[in-house]
Specification:
The complex is a heterotrimer of chains A (332), B (174) and C (308). Chain A has eleven helices and 15 strands. With 332 residues, chain A is α/β, with parallel strands linked by helices. In chain A, α1 (13-21) runs parallel beside α2 (47-59) and α1 packs parallel to α10. The longest helix of chain A is centred in the C-terminal third of the chain and has 19 residues, at 284-302. Chain B has one domain (18-143): Nonspecific Lipid-transfer Protein, Chain A. Chain B is built from seven helices and five strands; from the N terminus they run ααββββααβααα. In chain B, β1 and β2 form a beta hairpin. In chain B, α6 (144-151) crosses α7 (153-173). The longest helix of chain B has 25 residues, at 18-42. Chain C is an alpha/beta fold. In chain C, 35% of the residues lie in helices and 21% in strands. Chain C has helices spanning 2-6, 20-33, 50-54, 57-66, 82-92, 104-110, 126-134, 148-160, 182-186, 235-240, 255-266, 272-282, and strands at residues 8-11, 38-41, 70-74, 98-101, 115-117, 137-141, 164-177, 205-209, 214-219, 222-230, 245-248, 288-289. Classes of the chains: A alpha/beta (332), B alpha+beta (174), C alpha/beta (308). Chains in contact: A-B, A-C. β11 (239-242) of chain A pairs antiparallel with β8 (205-209) of chain C, so a sheet runs across the interface.
Chain lengths: 332, 174, 308
């Protein structure tokens, strides 16, 4: 039975409180280091901040999920183990993991705390999901954003755990946990360091005609005309040329965000247990707006009313939105 | 980085140099110093999130004001001063947009990424410095703008309210 | 030196959609001429391509084994559709030859029976390698982006558990996979209606930045590095650190000659400097890189401080 839990991003303690107050059923967050996949400058929690945040959330009946969803490189595994121990001590409600070694450690050391399988583990078949359930006791899988709703429904029939899907935010194109594009250009790894297009390597240049180009580590990712909406300087949303595409095109995807607000009833019906909102790197303003909108929508659906969906287009990348693979496999 | 060229596409730009600008700077200077000292004293957590960029020089450029703002968020000696655009210091990072948008960003009433996507906000220079400043300010509960306005009592709050209405109307018309 | 003699040269699975005929010719030549010890076969990238060369697989295996090569069949990196689940399950059910698993679905299907861990399974560290060894893994190919010091720790851990340890030393680095086919997208098609347009790019489809700098290669759902990884100068260090197998990825160059250069370097019949000059000549205009190994941007070429 789907409970349609709303799982909301928190990049700072203030954002966490904002999400809780806006009606999150659970918030997810990470420490200020490589143990999570949003290891961005000035973002995330110290252990002291997490302790206070857990108290705030629990006081209001909201769960706290700790993301430990990167892959420790050999020789540095202790940092991830210590993060898990700290999280357990502070009373987090679940760990979100990707690495098998990390999952194994938590399953053995903190068996009383739930394990959720991160999207970074890229488990996209019933067999892969069952592998993690049977070996590490995983209670919930966060599905990659590559499946259609009929495929999700089929998976649900064949797995023993809950399903969480993304419903709003960054529309990752590459299979998460299998992408080294950032490392190829910058020397900082998404999997090992938790970064994606690190700000320290990003440059924006403004030109006389009002256009703006974005560069990552000196490579031109895109150039937006004066009237064009912009996107993140991520490699998978860049414009490139190919031999038969000399004018440049979005080889992977254009700047666009995922928005599944219109598909919520179908997702619930397919057996999705929890809805995830992406955006730990975004502001309190984003968290407030998006969480409120989806709280109202989910409450409407649960009460048997037609959901009134607030317009969130202003918050989307490139000010465009898509239902991606969830709507049609033609997306592939 | 290529050299920044003059902004040509922001509306309602006021002159940011010359005598008028210098006089305007002189008028607001004492206020700004009080503001930044007060914020630094009340929100020490900002500095941890700034990390190595506590000593970075930020140029905050409200396009419709007759001057830009120079910010150095150094906890030991915070600087916030108005500078004529032609006398602006060499900044580590520049943040450019309409004044009220910048104010709403400080207060997390607007989302910085969204303002960037819509091209209402421009960032040049050290992008990490800007991201750290944004995240540091975003972790402040309450409204820095309100706090600042309150320093000047009822007249201060009235000015802020008027600015916000003007901004909201303007955004509505666009 | 005993350790050096034990080092095996392997040929990874063909990442591209080469025609059945091209594959037959390629493996015939590998069998007859290439000084590689082990050869990985099978379709790793796109399940739609598999039917084109599946029928030849038994004959290719037989041909290579007759030439004294060990053959391993690799499974798909991405498993989502029914046909992908079935293909993975079918391979996992085989007794021989060995299999290399590239997706957790394959691990599930294989259970505790012996298998190799492929580069797409994210064996980044000693804890994960120990877990995998406990589940029947006999061999692990480390992720392409793992830097040298981590390779050393991982290799030692794997050796302690009696696992073989493999590192890619030549060819385009695998950088990402997706559910979307970028070859089809480039030609205005969808994955289901791709008409196998990827067959035209034997070494991947080049992408350049809009200011004309080469950056990436598209191979169906996979994105690869523009540069070929070249760890020739690092082979001695890798072997000293416990790496047992060095992987060459098939590119559209003379792979027999590439294998000979690496073999000669391992045998010390060719100096590293001379070998690198020959390798560069074989690779034409394609840049060579070793940035990942040195913990910097993958596309970079770091000059080796004299090997220890």
């Amino acid at each position: 039975m789907s409970l349609a839990e709303l799982i909301c991003p928190a990049g700072t303690p203030a954002a966490l409180r904002t999400a809780v107050d806006a009606g999150a059923d659970a918030v997810y967050c990470g420490f200020q280091d490589a143990t999570n996949a949003r290891n961005f400058p000035g973002l995330n929690f110290t252990p002291e901040e997490l302790a206070a945040s857990v108290a705030y959330a629990h006081d209001k009946g909201t769960k706290v999920l700790l993301a430990l969803n990167t892959y420790p490189p050999a020789g540095k595994v202790d940092l991830w183990r210590q993060a898990a121990d700290t999280g357990a001590r502070l009373g987090v409600d679940a760990f979100i993991v990707a690495d098998m070694g990390v999952a194994d450690y938590i399953a053995r050391t903190h068996p009383g705390i739930r394990l959720h399988l991160s999207v970074q583990a890229a488990a996209s078949s019933p067999e892969a999901i069952r592998y993690y359930c049977e070996n590490f006791g995983v209670k919930r899988v966060v599905l990659p954003r590559i499946l259609t709703i009929p495929e999700i429904r089929q998976i649900k029939r064949e797995i023993p755990c809950e399903i969480e899907t993304f419903i709003f935010g960054n529309h990752g194109l590459m299979v998460e946990g299998r992408c080294s594009l950032t490392n190829y250009l910058t020397g900082q790894s998404t999997n090992m360091d938790g970064v994606c297009s690190p700000a320290s390597e990003v440059d924006y240049a403004r030109h006389a005609d009002g256009s703006m180009s974005s560069q990552l580590a000196g490579f031109t990712i895109d150039c937006f005309g004066a009237e064009e909406k912009a996107g993140y300087p991520t490699i998978c949303k860049g414009r490139y040329t190919a031999p038969h595409r000399p004018d440049g095109y979005y080889a992977f995807e254009e700047p666009i965000s995922l928005n599944l607000s219109r598909l919520l009833p179908e997702l619930i019906e397919a057996g999705v247990h929890a809805f995830k909102i992406e955006g730990r790197q975004r502001s309190k303003s984003y968290v407030r707006g998006v969480v409120r909108a989806f709280r109202a929508a989910v409450d409407d659906i649960k009460a048997g009313r037609e959901a009134k969906i607030a317009d969130l287009i202003a918050l989307t990348e490139g000010q465009k939105q898509t239902q991606g693979a969830f709507e049609t496999k033609k997306w592939r | 980085m290529t050299e920044s060229s003059p902004v040509t596409f922001f509306p309602a730009r006021l002159p940011g140099s010359g005598l008028a600008s210098r006089l305007a700077c002189l008028a607001v200077q004492p206020i700004l110093l009080r503001v930044v000292r007060r914020i630094a004293a009340r929100h020490p957590s900002i500095f941890a999130r700034l990390g190595p960029h506590q000593t970075t020089d930020f140029l905050i450029d409200p396009v419709e004001l007759p001057f830009a703002l120079h910010l150095r968020p150094d906890p030991a000696a915070p600087i916030l001063r108005a500078v004529p655009r032609d006398k602006a210091p060499r900044a580590g990072a520049t943040i450019r947009g309409r004044f009220l948008l910048l104010l709403e960003l400080v207060d997390a009433e607007e989302d910085g990424d969204a303002a960037f996507f819509s091209r209402d906000l421009e960032v040049t220079g050290d992008t990490e410095a800007v991201v750290r400043l944004r995240n540091a300010l975003d972790d402040v509960d309450g409204s820095i703008a309100e706090e600042t306005a309150a320093m000047f009592g009822a007249p201060g709050r009235a000015v802020l309210a008027r600015l916000r209405r003007a901004y909201a109307n303007d955004m509505h018309r666009r | 030196m005993a350790v050096k003699d034990m080092t095996k040269l392997t040929l990874g699975p063909i990442a591209y959609h080469w025609s059945a005929e091209a594959r037959r010719d390629f493996y015939a030549r590998i069998a007859d001429e290439a000084p590689v010890d082990e050869v990985y076969l099978g379709e790793v990238i796109c399940s739609k391509r598999a039917p084109f060369h599946e029928a030849d697989l038994p004959a290719t295996i037989e041909r290579l084994e007759r030439a004294g090569k060990t053959v391993i069949v690799s499974t798909l990196a991405e498993v989502m559709l029914k046909r992908e689940r079935k293909a993975t399950g079918d391979l996992a059910a085989m007794d021989a030859p060995e299999i290399e698993v590239n997706n957790a679905a394959g691990l599930y299907a294989r259970g505790r029976r012996a298998h190799r861990i492929g580069p797409f399974l994210n064996a980044y560290n000693e804890a994960t390698i120990a877990w995998m060894a406990g589940q029947g893994a006999t061999h692990v190919c480390l992720p392409a982006e793992l830097p040298g010091p981590a390779i050393a720790v991982a290799a030692q851990a794997a050796r302690d558990l009696r696992l073989g340890v493999e590192v890619q030393v030549f060819g385009r680095a695998p950088l990402a996979v997706s559910a979307r086919c970028y070859h089809a997208r480039a030609h205005g098609r969808t994955k289901d209606n791709c008409q196998f347009v990827c067959e035209n790019d034997a070494d991947g489809m080049p992408l350049r930045t809009t200011d004309d700098r080469p950056i990436l290669r598209v191979n169906g759902i996979q994105t690869q590095s523009e540069c070929y990884v070249d760890l020739l100068p690092e082979t001695e260090r890798l072997v000293a650190d416990g790496v047992t197998h060095l992987r060459l990825m098939p590119q559209a160059v003379d792979m027999v000659a590439v294998a000979r250069v690496f073999r000669a370097t391992l045998d010390r019949t060719l100096s590293v400097a001379e070998a690198d000059v020959r390798l560069a000549a074989l690779c034409g205009d394609t840049g060579l890189s070793n940035g990942f190994y040195h913990g910097t941007a993958g596309y970079r070429r770091i000059a080796m401080a004299s090997a220890g």
